Amino acid sequence: MLILTYPRSGHHLLINLLLRHYGSEVVTEGKKTRTQCRQVLKAGPFKYCEIYSHCGVVGCNEAVSLQKHHDFDFKLPYQKGVIVQYRKKEECLMSYYEYSQRKITRKEFLKKMTPHYEKWINKWVTKDNLCIDYHDLVTSTEDVLVKVLNYLDLPLRDMDFLKKIPIKNRRKA
User: Residue 143 and which of 19, 58, 134, 151 are 20 to 30 A apart at CA?
Assistant: First the structure.
């Protein structure tokens, strides 16, 4: 299943939480960090493909639970039933600006990226998809994880690991 995510919307947080949900079974096949891994990431029954660093094609050849895509160029045809991650416009774009360290002013960046963000939101944030707001992911983490796991038809395990991650640190999970 595809997971469409606008940059800076908590995607790596969600993936790390899903991997941690299945405990110490995370397999990155020899790489030091998960984002450097060019293999499918596996933890229990959960398998994840980051399209840009793994296979480069929509519809990974390996049987994965989730495959990331940004659809930043709007070339991906609309699909129903995907998971979509997004964040409130101002928070998202300011975080994206700070992360990317642009050589243009914030005002110029916002002027350029606001129409892009709005077009992406209008395309993907629909009632036909499971849409996850960053705020909900951080403040109602267990509820969001249960929704995602049920949507993916993956087994629920003990959520006690969440108690060890204070809300203020969940961005780093």
Answer: 58
Q: What backbone torsions phi and psi does residue 145 show, to the nearest 5 degrees?
A: -60, -45
Instruction: Check which CATH number belongs to the domain holding 45 and give it.
Output: 3.40.50.300
Q: Is residue 46 part of a domain?
A: yes
CA–CA separation, 97 and 100 (whole Å): 5
Residue 173 belongs to a domain:
no
Q: Which two tokens stand for residue 69?
A: 């895509």
Please tell me whether residue 84 adopts helix, strand or coil conformation: strand
Q: What share of the chain is helix, strand, coil (3-state, %, to 5)?
A: 40, 15, 45
Q: How far apart, in whole angstroms, are the C-alpha atoms of residue 100 and residue 20?
A: 27
- The domain in which residue 44 lies consists of 2-168
- E strands within 81-136? 83-86, 130-133
Give CA–CA dist 78/123, Å, rounded: 7
Q: What is the value of pTM for the model shown?
A: 0.83
Of the candidates 160, 125, 121, the one whose C-alpha atom is nearest the C-alpha of residue 141 is: 160
Q: Which residue has better confidence, 96 or 121?
A: 121
Helix count and strand count (H, E) for the chain: 5, 6
Could you report the per-residue pLDDT of 9-39, keeping only the tens digit for each? 888 889 888 988 887 545 454 444 544 456 7
